[in-house]
Design brief:
two-stranded parallel sheet, Rossmann fold, seven-stranded parallel β-sheet, 313 residues, alpha/beta
Length: 313
């Protein structure tokens, strides 16, 4: 078992939850990287904070000195192609080279099911699906995966990650419906995973004494219906939306709004990936199904979506 763990992206949504999970493991030494801003570290005595910028290869050497396992959560999600390539592709490559140079035993990369492309996908998974990324973000994250897999590492592919701190899944649907002024009627199914469950899976993969190398889809085994996802966003919107339109009508109304169209296309297309084997491999419980669990995070979503910075988004 690892005694020294490095977490990249520890000030992010997923990485912060991996850090919180790691702090529950007595005797585990923790090092985190920081690019900009601060990292909230409740266990100050146990956590070493190191400044590094994955876009700058010269800042990477030495990060893995004395480290047994890495959970790599740092990714660039938007921006121009050059910056995405520098961070996601070349940055991961440089981090892996440093890990290999210092004899790191386990390297876990938290990637995304977006590397599969647009779908539809139903009861699909890594053993049957080719990697066909559509966006520059997904292409560079797919490239990062290849570096990790070539080095014998572990790749985790969640689809929708929800929970306290989520600023993309439910907020994105809320934005789309605000722009549309209506709810969208659709019956698609989606894989989703609560962020603390994902963090626990990533940590388990890093600390496991068993073999975890390869690609693993990591979502709750039970998919969530699009209407259940949308209902959470609807509960957070003021004034309330009471109109419902079909997917085709919504697409026509949003034709000049690519950001809203992106969330509409996600909502109305099946993205269901089989993940039961991953939880068995890692010896983890995925927790309650998203349809039962999403409401637990409603207070946070309401607060976030009612703030001045997001109310008009």
């Amino acid at each position: 078992m690892a005694h020294q763990l490095l977490i990249t992206g520890a000030n992010g949504f997923i990485g912060g939850n991996v850090l919180a999970a790691a702090l529950t493991r007595p005797g585990l030494g923790i090092r985190v990287t920081r690019h900009r801003g601060s990292v909230a570290v409740p266990g100050q005595g146990r956590v070493q904070v190191t400044r590094a910028d994955l876009a700058d290869a010269s800042s990477v050497p030495g990060l893995c000195r004395g480290i047994d396992a890495v959970v790599h959560c740092a990714s660039r999600i938007g921006g121009d192609g050059a910056s995405l390539h520098a961070v996601n592709d070349e940055g991961t490559k440089a981090l892996l080279a440093d890990a290999q140079r210092h004899g790191v035993r386990r390297f876990v990369y938290v990637s995304t099911a977006a590397v599969y492309g647009r779908g539809p996908f139903r009861r699909a998974g890594s053993r049957t699906l080719p990697v066909r990324p559509h966006s520059a973000t997904s292409r560079t994250r797919a490239a990062a995966e290849q570096h990790v897999l070539a080095a014998g590492g572990t790749v985790l592919r969640p689809h929708l990650v929800y929970g306290t701190g989520d600023r993309w899944v439910v907020p994105g649907l809320a934005f789309m419906m605000r722009q549309l002024g209506a709810e969208v009627a659709c019956s698609s199914l989606h894989s989703a995973v609560e962020v603390t469950a994902l963090a626990g899976a990533a940590l388990a993969a890093a600390l496991s004494d068993g073999e975890t190398a390869g690609v693993h889809d990591v979502n709750h085994p039970r998919p969530v219906r699009a209407c259940e996802l949308a209902a959470v966003a609807l509960h957070c919107l003021e004034p309330a939306i009471t109109v419902r339109v079909g997917a085709d009508a919504a697409r026509e109304r949003l034709a000049d709004n690519p950001q809203a169209l992106h969330h509409l296309d996600m909502l109305t297309t099946d993205h269901w990936f089989l993940s039961s084997a991953t939880w068995r491999l890692l010896g983890r419980d995925p927790g309650p199904a998203p349809s039962q669990d999403l409401a637990r995070h409603l207070p946070w979503y309401r607060h976030y979506l009612s703030s001045p910075a997001t109310a008009g988004r």
